[in-house]
TrEMBL record:
SMART domains (UniProt xref): AAA, REC
GO terms for biological process, alphabetical: phosphorelay signal transduction system; regulation of DNA-templated transcription
Database matches in SUPFAM superfamilies: CheY-like, Homeodomain-like, P-loop containing nucleoside triphosphate hydrolases
Matching PANTHER family: PTS-DEPENDENT DIHYDROXYACETONE KINASE OPERON REGULATORY PROTEIN-RELATED, TRANSCRIPTIONAL REGULATORY PROTEIN
Residues with PTM 4-aspartylphosphate: 54
Phylogenetic classification of the source organism: Bacteria, Pseudomonadati, Pseudomonadota, Alphaproteobacteria, Hyphomicrobiales
Coiled coil (residue ranges): none
Protein name: Two component Fis family sigma54 specific transcriptional regulator
Classification via Gene3D superfamilies: 1.10.8.60, 3.40.50.2300, Homeodomain-like (1.10.10.60), P-loop containing nucleotide triphosphate hydrolases (3.40.50.300)
Length: 481
């Protein structure tokens, strides 16, 4: 039987606590606590490896609680979660409380899960190295092998082949382009709307490259004020600012030899951009308060949902930094521009939800898939994931999810149910109704442009025209190339 590390999650908000529990439950034994008092009772009776504590707690801050934990249960790996408004308090206590990582809100489930995996691995390696008897302590080679095994598993989890898409999807071209980026040590800029999977693509580039056996480090540049962002990325010396009680290693140094992923790079201030440019130009960092710079060998993959060239023209983003970051630009199209991906992506998301919720929902009714195809998905894959989670939570059976479970945002786009029962009719009739709805949705999106709709649907122009005639669609519409 595989032993799962125990994670203690502390949050006074029930909804947040349950969300964190769902994200972590597949890989860890998760114990929830709604107060620091409850958490202390858990720690007194349970062996806990990782603590994930919210900063804003009734009666006591997360940092203050973790300071006490450090004294009584020093072996635990302590993590704090909060928004940027609490950053000064957290900076002041991050070293004193021995906090391993500061997780900022809003957090992404994949990134949070990866951080907790790292924390659990750190606990295990520390115990192997420091807690074993002298004659049974693992050798440096054994520790290196353990780290390598974990990284090998990470590489398998984030291969290009695991990026879900249809054979006719424009994502095929994106992946082919990104694969080329793995062959050369070059900065990559990934653009695209929020929720399109930019971090997933960045991880695939890293693990597919020669740096794949080195660290992959993530920082959300839009979530932190300048001083904290500089400390996180470049490090700091003891006394560099209020709360800097000891030297701190920055993420660029942690990522030495590997890759750093700078998400939301378009949100950074001009003053920070100057400092980042120097790092890229000189290949060295200067921790806050340090007299001398330090050389680092790090590949930078940046991402943004902004039109960065437009930001350059508007004077909000440095042109020289843009061209340093965008040596190899890659654009991820929005979900609305690749509707052929919706069925396979939805199927993968449903598998994930089934594992998280311990359910066995078998799929989607044709009418539901048609509604998915007709919706614009401004939140992209993240919005689709939320919709599927909600539908599974509302469903009392494990059969296909029907259109009656759709949210009001998505339901107006749903085509009418094929018959009065919502589940009858010959298979051929149901498939034809779905095909007609998909074609109608595509023609609406493209303004009747047959060439673009044919590309979206993976059909030839002649094939699409034949189906339009069969279903009596599109008369009088545009036919531009």
């Amino acid at each position: 039987m595989t032993h799962h590390a125990t994670v203690l999650v502390i949050d006074d908000e029930v909804r947040s606590l349950e969300t964190l529990r769902r994200v972590l439950a597949d890989e860890f034994e998760v114990i929830g606590a709604r107060s620091t008092g409850e958490a202390e009772a858990v720690l007194a009776g349970e062996m806990v490896q990782v603590i994930l504590c919210d900063q804003r707690m009734p009666g006591e801050t997360g940092v203050a609680f973790l300071k006490r934990v450090r004294d009584q249960w020093p072996d635990t790996v302590r993590m704090i979660i909060s928004g940027y408004t609490d950053s000064e308090d957290i900076i002041a206590g991050i070293n004193e409380a021995g906090i391993y990582q500061y997780v900022t809100k809003p957090w992404h489930p994949d990134a949070l899960l990866a951080s907790v995996r790292d924390a659990a691995a750190l606990f295990r390696l520390q115990k192997e190295a420091g807690g074993a008897a002298a004659e049974t302590k693992p050798s440096p080679q054994a520790l290196a092998a353990a780290v390598e095994g974990r990284r090998r598993a990470e590489r398998g989890r984030y291969e290009f082949d695991r990026i879900v898409h249809a054979p006719s999807s424009p994502v095929e071209g994106v992946i082919a382009l990104a694969r080329r980026a793995t062959l050369y040590d070059i900065s990559v800029l990934i653009t695209g709307e929020s929720g399109t999977g930019k971090e997933l693509l960045a991880r695939a580039i890293h693990y597919g490259s020669a740096r794949g056996d080195k660290p992959f480090v993530v920082e959300n540049c839009g979530a932190l004020p300048d001083e904290l962002l500089e400390s996180e990325l470049f490090g700091c010396k003891k006394g560099a600012f209020t709360g800097a009680y000891q030297d701190r290693v920055g993420l660029f140094e942690v990522a030495d030899g590997g890759t750093i992923f700078l998400d939301e790079i378009g949100e950074t201030s001009p003053s920070f951009q100057v400092k980042l440019l120097r790092v890229l130009q000189e290949g060295e960092i200067r921790p806050l308060g340090a007299q001398r710079p330090r050389k680092v060998d790090v590949r930078v993959v940046a991402a943004t949902n902004r039109d960065l060239l437009g930001e350059v023209d508007a004077g909000r983003f440095r042109r020289d930094l843009y061209y340093r970051l965008a040596a190899f630009p890659v654009h991820l199209p929005a979900l609305k521009d690749r509707p052929m991906d919706i069925p396979p992506v939805a199927a993968r998301l449903l598998d994930d939800v089934n594992r998280t919720f311990h359910r066995r929902v078998s799929g989607f009714a044709p009418e539901t898939l048609a509604a998915f195809a007709a919706h614009r998905w401004p939140g992209n894959v993240r919005e689709l994931a939320n919709e599927i989670q909600r539908m599974v939570a509302l469903s009392d059976r494990d059969g296909p999810l029907g259109p009656e479970l759709l949210s009001d945002v998505v339901r107006p786009a749903a085509p009418p149910v094929i018959d009065g029962e919502g589940g009858g009719g010959l298979l051929r009739e149901r498939v034809e109704a779905l095909e007609r709805a998909l074609i109608e949705a595509s023609l609406r999106r493209t303004g009747g442009n047959i060439s673009r709709s044919a590309d979206e649907l993976g059909l030839s122009r002649v094939g699409l025209r034949a189906k339009m005639e069969r279903y009596d669609l599109g008369r009088g519409g545009a036919d531009a190339d």
